Structures are given as C-alpha cells and as structure tokens.
Amino acid sequence: MRHRRVAVTVACTVLTAASVAMYSGTASGSPGTAPERGAGCSAVYMIVARGTTEPPGEGATASLVRRIKRATRQPIEDVAVDYPAVAQAPGDTHSSVGAYAASSSRGAAAVRNMLTAEAGRCPHQKIVMLGYSQGAQVIGDAVAGGGGGVLGPQTAPVPAAVTEHVVAMIQMGDPRHMVGQPFDVGSSRRDGMFPRTANQQLTPFSSRIRSYCDTGDTFCDRGRVFPVHLTYLIHYSDDATRFVVGAIGG
User: Fold this and answer.
1) For residues 224 and 226, what is the distance between their CA atoms, to the nearest angstrom?
2) Of the candidates 157, 151, 154, which has an alpha carbon nearest to the alpha carbon of residue 169?
3) Tens digits of residue pLDDT in 86-110
4) Structure pTM?
5) β-strand 209-212 against 76-80: which pairing, if any?
6) For residues 50 and 135, is the Cβ–Cβ distance under 8 A?
C-alpha cells in the first residue's frame, strides 16, 4: 500500500473541555499504575486510554467506566494509561504525523507493559480495555502490533499468553479502523487514516472487540464531519456496556 503524508489535526479525538461537556456527568480520572506484586487482585482490571488532547486520566471515557461499574457486581479496578496523547510536539503550533506517531507508540508500549505485568501478577483476572480515538489505536496496537508506514517502525504485540487474559475491548473512533471486520459497529464504509497492515489485524480477537465508527468521522472514516467523532459515548455507551458486562459477568 502506498502511504501518503497525512496531516493529523490537533483535534484527533479533540475531546476538549467544550466537547467533553457533551457527556453529562463525565469527569476525567487520575492516571495510575498497577498495584505492586502481591497486592490483592480485583475480579476485573480495566485499562482506559484517553483521546488526543485530553488531560491525564481516563478522559471522557470515564463515563463509560462508571456505566459498566453500575451494571455489574464484579469488583473492577480501572487504571488510566499514562501516555502523551498529543498530535503535536511541545512548542509547535501545527500537528504532525511524527508527533502523533511518537505519542501513540508510547501509549501502546505503556499498555503492553500494563498487560504483561497484570497478567503475571493476577493470572485469574479478567482484563478489559477501553480506548477513544488515539486511545483506541493504542489498545489495538498493544495486542496486534503497531507502527508501519507513516506511523514509523513496526512494533510487536504482546504474546498470546498475555492477550488471552483480555476478555473485552471497546474502541471508539479508532484511526486504524478497517471496514468489513466482524467486530465493526456503525455506519462507516471506509478505512480510517492509518489502516492496519496485513500482519497487524485484530481479527484473531474478533469475539472480544467492539469497534465503533460512523460515516463522516474525520479519523476512523476519513470523512469531513468532525462532530461525528465526538458522538460515540452518546450513541453507543449502552451497547458497549452490555458487551463488557457480558464478558465479565453481571
């Protein structure tokens, strides 16, 4: 596939303070790390990756975390991914593919480390991952491999012995979205800005993923209607909650 240089706008998620206000009751969580080895293991460990430009924490996706917690009796420990979540270098006024690629690569590496550490510390625990926009890409890159083309050198996924602990993944507005996947939900009929390479497919995890993308979305659909990118928590939180609760138990 021939790659062209792509302008990644600073808005890739662009869940700014104004847009986050769309989601009633949404509040950013605080970044955290997995407990030290030997600490008690919750039934469910939830990894949450925020979108671009959101402050450290869980971002707007915190509202989905709360929905899931209310819908199950399973004890859930939710932890935010600590990564830049930017689309421009410090001091720059324009976004760039290089800055975005470096940010998403750091995010995927952080998720790989979290997954590996938690699977080793709590081998009987169920792991759930939630990601919005760049965060959706980050969790996908962690389990299927990242990079390639304009995104830079390819990175390896975590081993299958680790991913087998992941019971559910929710991706909203994933820039690496690909049409025709069995886990796709929404009206999109086009690939996203950075389609996955042949050796980075998420299909081995099909039964454990819901990927939401609608027509017009600037990033997951390469459309021209940016507000579509901000609506997934409004339209699909109920469906995502049912999917996750079905995987972890009520």
Assistant:
1) 6
2) 157
3) 986 566 655 678 899 999 999 999 9
4) 0.85
5) unpaired
6) yes
